[in-house]
Amino acid sequence: MDRTSTARRASIDARILAAARALFVRHGFYGVTLDDVAAAAELSRPTVASRYSAPEDLFVCLMQAFCEQRCAQMRARTASCATREALAQSLAEHWLTLTRDEVAWLSLSFEFYAFARRHPRLERRLRDQREMLWGHLGRCIAECYSAAGLRLDVAPTELARMCYALGAGFALDAAGFGANMPREVARELLTTLLLRPRSPTPL
Asked: Would the N or C end of the chain have less CB density within 10 A of its end CB?
């Protein structure tokens, strides 16, 4: 495939994914079809279907892109951190900003997880992708610590899982119940977790 064809394909994929994200946010996962995405992207249905066989394929790709974008933002945000305290505070603020600004998308993720649980093949695919995303996020955290010359005392993937669980809880609280944990309390919880990354003691 020559450079022009590659660029054109990338442009079409970007249009499809942008249209799909906007539609999912507006109508929910169950309210979007490939026909809807094709119309919003101003493409033919066969063009969309040749790349994504179903809405769930689109959603999985959007989740991957979401993680990669947020990891890039995390690296940029922590680039100037020189102490463990500054790094922990910066990472905590990053997660809090994410759960505040992306409530709609995180709510959609919960909806999609519930859908996937009823479809074993998709659940396995999503579980594999989630493990991959946690690994990606863990490497990003490890890179942030390494760039600051700091030691990470727990497996980065496990730290990523813990931070993700806290962040998801904050987002679910805000999206599902209209409640928001006080920002200073949430920041303290995340900062404490990131400042003392020790492996849990077996019971």
From this structure: C
